Amino acid sequence: MRDPEHAWSRRVSRVAHEPKRIATWARWYATKQARELNHELFLDPNHDVASTAFVVGSARSGTTWLAEVLSADRDTRFIMEPFDDRCSQFRGGMLDATYLAPHAQNDRLGFFADKVFSGQLRSQWTDQFNHAHRPVRRVVKDVRTVALLGWIAARYPAMPIVYVVRHPFATAFSMATLGWGAHGDLLHPTDRLDALSTDERRILLRQAFLAEVSRWCVEQSRGLRHPDPAIAVCFYEQLVADPAAEFARLGDYLASRSPAWSGWAPSPSSFTKPSQTSVRRQAAGTVAGWVETWQGELDQSTVDEAQQIVASFGLGSIYGTSPEPQCAPELIWQEVTR
Questions:
Q1: For the residues 167-177, what does the mean pLDDT come to?
Q2: CA-to-CA dists, residue 13 to 2, 3, 4, 16, 130, angstroms
Q3: Domain 42-337: top CATH class
Q4: pLDDT tens, 251-274?
Q5: DSSP assignment, residue 162?
Q6: What is the residue extent of each domain of the chain?
Q7: SS3 category, 137
């Protein structure tokens, strides 16, 4: 039987602590709103797409890090993954490896892409990392439109595009171990009440890894289908090995394509800062620590099968079983189309 006196005292205690709870919640809510408002409080009147640098690459390729370095200045707006389904203005998001030939017509996608690249899109999702209040240029970063490279380049010929490429084994292993891709609902460690056994996890990781390698190949083969030397290609491995040289090269490219990027120079202090989407919050001690994440983690039969998938898509001349790319970035178009 419940004690009426005890129940009453508990009610009194809750009421006594209610003002403190309300004050704590109010401080949290005010801080949250101020932080979001700070990202979304800006004027972006220049709608010239040439003022936008488009950074595109497959997921886990270092696109966020590169985009954050490009947008480190207070006069550069950062637009985050507008084609993600979490952007409420493009409901449903962009499906993986969606392809359109150059000059193909798609009214819905064209209307939305015009808003994105002209800087007329605003949302909590896309502006979550923005810190520019009066931007003179923009960086749009996306991981779902690699297969649309030819269509985007044809529709916006004045816009500088930076295409980031990373070893398929590294991106696939990262996606699989994070539970972000194939079998994600089974492999994601925080979403399951029952833990997978060691054998179950090993089997599913292998399947997820190979599935992600296949997805990477489909995206790149479609993105490279229409060679365009006006697009700057950047290998993640070379960017990590010598960020000063690579970002200087990208700075020259951007300045040559658009007056809005004239005079931009990278900040060396931003090279070692982990990106907002990094799963390793501390910088690796060596370059190998960043680019060789998958080596030693996969059995040889899995590596061999993955390499056969890459070769079957005609991409074996770009990446092999070594963690380094096998061609120069400016020659990537020739390697795929020859």
A1: 94
A2: 17, 16, 14, 5, 43
A3: alpha beta
A4: 999 999 999 999 999 988 888 877
A5: E
A6: 42-337
A7: strand
